[in-house]
Amino acid sequence: MRRRQAAVLTLGEIMEKGQGKSQISCLCLLALLSSFIWICLLYFHFMVLGGTSVTDTSPELDFVPIEPTSMKSLPLDSNPSPITHSVTVHLPEDDLGLQRDRVVDNASKDEITNQVKQRERVITYASIDKIPNRVKPRGVAGYASKDKIPDQVKPISNVAEPRPLGKKKEDKQNYPFMRALRTVDNKSDPCGGRYIYVHKLPPRFNEDMLKECKSLSMWTNMCKFTTNAGLGPPLENVEGVFSDTGWYATNQFAVDVIFGNRMKQYECLTNDSSLAAAVFVPFYAGFDIARYLWGYNVSTRDAASLALVDWLMKRPEWRIMGGKDHFLVGGRITWDFRRLTDQESDWGNKLLFLPAARNMSMLVVESSPWHGNDFGIPYPTYFHPAKDADVFAWQNRMRKLERKYLFCFAGAPRPGNRKSIRGQIIDQCKNSNVCKLLECDFGESKCHSPSSIMQMFQSSLFCLQPQGDSFTRRSAFDSMLAGCIPVFFHPGSAYTQYTWHLPKNYSEYSVLIAEDDIRRNVSIEQLLKSIPAKKVNEMREVVINLIPRVIYADPRSKLETLKDAFDIAVQAVINKVTKLRKDIVEGRKDDFIEELSWKYALLEEGQYIGPHEWDPFFAKKKKDGESDTDSSSAEAAKNSWKNERRQHS
C-alpha cells in the first residue's frame, strides 16, 4: 500500500502558525509584569509612605540645638533605630539673618560633627511628625501643636518661617518702621534717621484757637502773646538791659505755638511717613485746656482731647507703632492734663490718662516724676535770637558783668501753703546786706517787668529758685539766661525735669539746698559764701554756655550752628523712638517701673534702678486709697492759675 505523502507547508503558513503561539506568550508576560508592578506600588504605599505598619522602637527625643562651642549638648542614642528620616530645616544665619537649607539625619554622627565644625546649628528629631514648622535662632522654637511644647520652651511670636527652595529671602523682621530705621545708617543722607512727619490736623485743633485768642485765658488777653509766631510783642530796650534785637514779652505758656512754628522750619520734614524717625502732632494742648479750666464741665474739658485721639487712631501712621512714635507739646504743667476723676470739682482734663495718649510722648514745661509719657522742656524766656551771632554777643556780655549781689530772689510768699519755704527765704534776704529782693505781690509791677527781673538777675551771682505752686518756675530759665547760678531747694525743680537740656551733674551749674535746712534756719548767705571763688566762676561759665540749650530761637529764622531748646527736644524724641524700634527688632524688653520714672534719666551707662538719695523727695504717700502727691499736685496747678490771675489783676 502506498504511504500517504507528507503535507508540504508553504513559508507563509509556517509563519502564521508560529505567530499564534508567540501572541499567547506575550500576553502572559505582560500580565505577570502588571501584577508585579501593582504589588510594588501597594507595598510602597502602605509600608513606606503610610508608616503605620512599622513601629519605631527608638526612644522619643526632644529637639536639641547644637551650639558650635560644644558637642556635649547633643544627646545621641547608642542604639539608633534602623528607621531614620532626613528632613530639610531652614534656619536663619546668626550674623547676617540669612536662611539656609540644611539636611539633618539623626543617625549620622559624622554629618553632625562636620556641621558643628562649620559653626552651623543642627536640630535632631526622632520622628518626622515632631518637626516644628517654625524655628527661631538661639534655640527657641515655635510648634504647630501646643501639646508637644517642652516645659522649658514657650511659644513665641514673630519667629522666622521656613523658606521654600528658590524663594528669595525677606527681611528678618518685616516691621513697618524698618525703612525709617535703615535711614539711620545712611551716612550720605544728612537727614538720615532724623526725618519728622507732621500730621495735617483739622484746624479746630490748632489754628482755630488762635483766631479765638481772646478766649484762651479768663483774665489775660492772649492775642498779643500769639503775635510774632508766638513770641509776643517786642520789648523795648529803654534801660539797656536787653540787646537791641531778639527780645519779646513772651508768655510763659506760649510753647505750643512757638514749638509748632519752629517745627515748620525744621530741616528734615518729610511727607513720606515711612521715612519718619518720629511723628509730630501739632495740637495746641495747652491752649485747649486753658480756655476751659474755670467754669466748664469735664465733658467740655475733655472734648478736644477725645476728638484728637479718635482722629489719630484712624490714621495709617498710627498703626505703625500704635502711637509710640508720636509726640506733641502742651505748654503747661503736666497736672493740667492729669485729672484724677470725672468729678466736676477735679482740675484739668484727662488727656495724659487716655489709653492712646499713654503711648505718645508729651512735652510739657513741668513733667510728672511718677509717669512715663511726659517729658520736661524749658519754659520760654524773653530772648529769641535769629542768628548765632546774637547768642555769642549776649554770652560775652554776661561774662563781663559786675555782679554786686551775692544772691537774689523774686517771688511772693505762700502763706496758705504750710510746706512752702518762701516766707523764710524772703526773711533771710531782707536781713542780708548781700541779697536783692523783688517781692511779687499785689500792686508790685516791677516784679512782673521783664526789664526789672533781668536787671536783678544780671547783678547777682546766685538766684534763689524755690518751688512755686508746683515743682518748677519760669524764673529758673530767666536767671540762667542772665548768667546767674540757680539755687534749687528740691530736685524736682530742675534735676529730674529737664534731663534733656541740663547736665546730669547738677553741681556743675547749680546749688542744691534742702528745704528742711531752710526750715532749720540754715543761713543761705553763709552757705553760698563758703563756695570758693574759683568754683563760682567755673559754675557761672557752665551756666552761660548752657544758654543756647534753654532758649527758643526765633521761629521765623534758624540758628546756623547752635542747637536751641527745640533742637535738643526733637533730637531726644528721635533718640527715644529709635531706641524703642531697635529694642523691638532685637526682641529686648524693658521692665519699666512707671512710678520710678524720675530715676531713669539720671542713670549712667550700666547702672540699674535702685535706692537713691532723693527717694524721700519723691516718696508717694497713699491717703484713702489715692496718691496724696497726685492730689496735692493738682491743687498746686489750680493755685498756679490763681497766681496768674493775680499777676494780671
Which key features would you list for this structure?
disordered C terminus; elongated; disordered N terminus; 5-stranded parallel β-sheet; 649 residues; alpha/beta
Q: Residue share in helices?
A: 25-40%
Give the class from helix and strand content and strand pairing.
alpha/beta
Q: Give a count of the beta strands, DSSP E runs of length 2 or more.
A: 16
Uncertain residue segments: 1-19, 51-170, 645-649
Q: What kind of sheet is the major sheet? A: 5 strands, parallel
Shape: elongated
Terminal CA distance reads 167 Å
Spatial extent as radius of gyration? 39 Å
Q: What percentage of amino acids are in beta strands?
A: 5-15%
Q: How many helices does DSSP assign?
A: 21
Query: Strand arrangement, largest sheet?
Result: 5-6-7-8-9
Write down the overall mean pLDDT.
Answer: 79
Structure description:
Pfam families: Exostosin_GT47. Keywords: Glycosyltransferase, Golgi apparatus, Membrane, Signal-anchor, Transferase, Transmembrane, Transmembrane helix. The structure is a single chain. By secondary structure, the protein is an alpha/beta fold. It has 21 helices and 16 strands. It has helices spanning 11-49, 109-117, 178-182, 207-211, 227-230, 255-264, 285-290, 298-313, 316-321, 355-359, 388-400, 422-430, 450-458, 475-481, 515-519, 524-529, 533-545, 565-586, 597-600, 615-618, 628-647, and strands at residues 86-92, 99-105, 134-136, 140-142, 196-198, 278-280, 326-333, 361-366, 374-376, 405-411, 435-439, 460-465, 485-488, 511-512, 622-623, 626-627. Strands 5-6-7-8-9 form a 5-stranded parallel beta sheet. It has a 5-stranded parallel beta sheet with strand order 11-10-12-13-14, with helices on both faces. Strands 1-2 form a two-stranded antiparallel sheet. Strand 7, helix 10 and strand 8 form a beta-alpha-beta unit. The longest helix is centred in the first third of the chain and has 39 residues, at 11-49. It is elongated. The model is unreliable at 1-19, 51-170 and 645-649 (pLDDT under 50).
